[in-house]
Amino acid sequence: MIVCVCNAITETEVREAARSGATCPDKAYAYLGCEPHCGCCLVYAQELIDQERAKRPKLRMVSA
Length: 64
Ligand code: FES
Fold this sequence. Notes:
Layout: E1 2-4, E2 9-10, H1 11-19, H2 25-31, H3 42-54
Antiparallel strand pairs: 1-2
This protein binds FE2/S2 (inorganic) cluster (FES).
The site of FE2/S2 (inorganic) cluster (FES) has 10 residues, from loops.
């Protein structure tokens, strides 16, 4: 499914960018070699990024 019409970015690509460390649409789109234009997609892109990041295992702090 296309998330960003301006850049033809798919949901799969946004999720991949999030798994690679992107925390926001600007960073995800930069990872994909483009940048936001109209901005219509940014809220949905952020939701996808947040969903993907929530799947990551939490880091545990170990005290010495
Ligand atoms: S739809 Fe993504 S910047 Fe326009």
